[in-house]
User: Fold Type-4 uracil-DNA glycosylase from Aromatoleum evansii.
Amino acid sequence: MGLAPVWRLRAGGAEERADDGVVQAVETLPEPVASAPDLGSAASPLSAPPQSAALSPAPSSEHEVRPARVVLPVRDPVPRPTATAAASSSARREEVDPARAGRIARMDWDELEADIRACGACRLCEKRRQAVPGVGDRGAEWMFVGEGPGSEEDQRGEPFVGAAGKLLDAMLAAIGLKRGENVYIANAVKCRPPHNRTPQADEIATCHPYLARQIELVRPRVLVALGRPAALALLDAEISIGASRGRVFRRGDTPVVVTYHPAYLLRNQADKAKAWEDLCFARGLVQELAGQP
Ligand code: URA
Assistant:
């Protein structure tokens, strides 16, 4: 049905001015020439393409390049942080109590979730109804990281169960994935920021030992950062999503792909196609790492 991506190399790299005003080099990206699946409108964000169509491989020709092959082997392992962001985010991560981080680093799942639920390490605990540890397959190949719980998540204790979560589910379905099956979902911060504000760098840093332990326990093949705060949590660097799409970053040995946050996509429907490209890119990477043709 023409839903699968056909990748063509765009000629040469480019420089783009990111939304934060920082000029960053953009690598040559594979450019999809097929249309993205319908991820739905804001009113009805659930529609996703039939899996067979979304997953069917594109016919090959000498101009077509599978996405993962464009970037592998993984290079440029650490994103180049902007000077100010690097100073603020890494300084704050270093300020996190090392004894607490060490204790969390040794926890099993039950201890970890109990500790998250009882956490009072930052101001976010003051206004939360409950902490929201994470959900899904603890042996998943895919791990998606969002920003922080919103109102519905705070009520239900599960990440991405509101409108953004419905869109995330549709995005997962578009690449043949399903919440809870080979997918683990977590957030950069485990407690709802008041009025759904963006979590601050020090809150992300304080919560980071929990995210780090979740990643260690899941050991995913790929991490997908949904939005800038998630990328900050995973990479300890401020990046522009627009300028970082199509690149493979690394967190230790684990590749990290960045894309837009579903809540942003609900407000910017035109970028849904880009998010789908990013997920196809990540899927190519996972297949490559799994040694699948
Ligand atoms: N947005 C997030 O980043 N995480 C959630 O769990 C819900 C909305």
The radius of gyration is 18 Å. Residues 146-150, 153, 159-160, 162, 164-165, 187, 263 surround uracil (CB under 6 Å). Confidence is low (pLDDT under 50) at residues 1-34, 41-87. Strands lie at 7-9, 14-17, 23-26, 30-32, 134-136, 142-146, 183-187, 222-226, 249-251, 254-259.
